[in-house]
Amino acid sequence: MMARSFSSRARLVTICAMLGTPSSASAQSAAPIGSDTYSFTPAAGDERKVTLSPAEGGLRLTWPGARAGPSTGLRAGWDTALLGVWVNANGADPLVAISAGAVRLEQHLDPGVSGLRWLNLTGLRGELKDGTALTLTGEGVVLEPGDAILRLFTNKLDLTGRILILAPHPDDAEIAAFGLYADRNATIVTVTSGNAGDANYADNVKDSSKQYLLKGYLRAVDSVTVPWQGGIPPSRTANLGYFDARLKTMREKPAEAVPEMYGPNTDVAPYRRANISSLVPNTSRTNTWNHLVEDLVTILKKVNPNVIVMPFPQLDSHADHQHVAVAAVEAFAKWKRTPRFLLFTNHATGTRDRYPYGPAGTVTSVPPYSGPAVSTTPDSPQWTTSAARLGLKRSSSCSIVRALSRPSTHSWRLRPRTDRPGTGVRAGRRTTIPLVASRRRVAKQPRRRMPDDAASVGVCRSPVGRLVTGGVCRGADRVRLGRLRGCFGAVANHAAQPGPPRRGLCAVGWERVRRSERPSAVHAVQDRPPS
Q1: Beta partners for 343?
Q2: Rg of the chain in Å (alpha carbons)
Q3: Cβ of 482: how many Cβ atoms within 10 Å?
Q4: In this structure, what is the dihedral angle of CA atoms 463, 464, 468, 473, given to the nearest 10 degrees?
Q5: For 492, how many CA atoms within 13 A lie in the half-sphere containing its CB?
Q6: CA-CA distance, 472 to 291, in Å (whole number)?
Q7: Which helix (H) or strand (E) holds 248?
Q8: What is the pTM for the complete model shown?
């Protein structure tokens, strides 16, 4: 997560990057091949050269003390620390273990890494005092001893005010910023309905344009209801309904109505019907760039955010993500206000969509980047740490919003707990698999075919884009319409009966109803990327 104020120069750099025009940042001298080309100005934080000395099993660094004079020591009260080291991979899954006192962190690096990389030391903040010894041990990577660069930042980021999340697609807000927006005064606006990609409903709806209308509507419902897992009610969420994979074309012809990828429809209203809030009207609205910018201006005026979270167009390789940032910049010019910005990447350039690397609980830093130099001015990198209690909520949220990504080789049915009153499910043994179930408990769950007396539609199997592997995402390619009364996802109920979902939450699980091949045991969602 990068934090920065959006000055006029920063707006120009962003737009120039999108148009392919050289900017002052790209004109800087290039670093050696494979090295990160991030540029830090002195005003963005403290910088100091430190020495990495050979030690048993790795390298050793002695932490410098707090600032004692104008040119010695480091600033006290810092909240983010980066250590620039030179590394060369000699294994398939390179990682660096960093230890100080009783705390040990692991940071996984990109396969084949060679050059300068920034290690995130922020999690060691409580252990780092004058003279503290840090130990760096490489696994699958060689760390070069000698001079290294230490940078400390004091951001003092205030997240108590109004936060606006601009997400290009359903799931982007959860992947990039769930821990940031959860339980805060946040508003989440998803720009597109996510109505492109795989034909998940070909077996249910033969007409391709209609099946993508269905897919986009269900994903739009997800985008406005799943944030409730993080304490953000549907009254503070909205899906603008613009068409997935069409933003670049829309910007090239800003006043022209651009149809969907798979059909002639040019009206975003079918997807806006998923909205419960009054942030944007659900009336007819053509899919044009000018309308998108106007809608963003309307939302900015209604929300009046202190902090805006959106994609970093130079570090995110997805065209929709880049153009959401460009549309936002055009809206800011009409809004005529400059709040604090936090910029994220969900599709880090050059990483084949596998960033961040490593399993849950390990450290992540800025993504590896060796394109034209990117400047962090005038502010600095910022990482926020989610409370442990949010970990499962974030995992389950990601698994829900990614439930429409790609077809599965197994057939499962999503259903509520049978012992919950008012769910409309026939009496009988409990056959659900709770989201929080352990591997052993799931393996022992009784599996019984549920009477096929209600409509069902195909959904997905995923891992949750680089963040979740295995788990319940290995199943769930059929959703029972009209069964999930009052669920936080509200996918089935909302699709069958448009309108606000009923209050309250229900436990959701998966029941296997047909085996096309012998599947592995379903287990709890894990917030980690695929190995």
Answers
A1: 2, 310
A2: 24
A3: 14
A4: -50
A5: 25
A6: 39
A7: helix 247-252
A8: 0.71
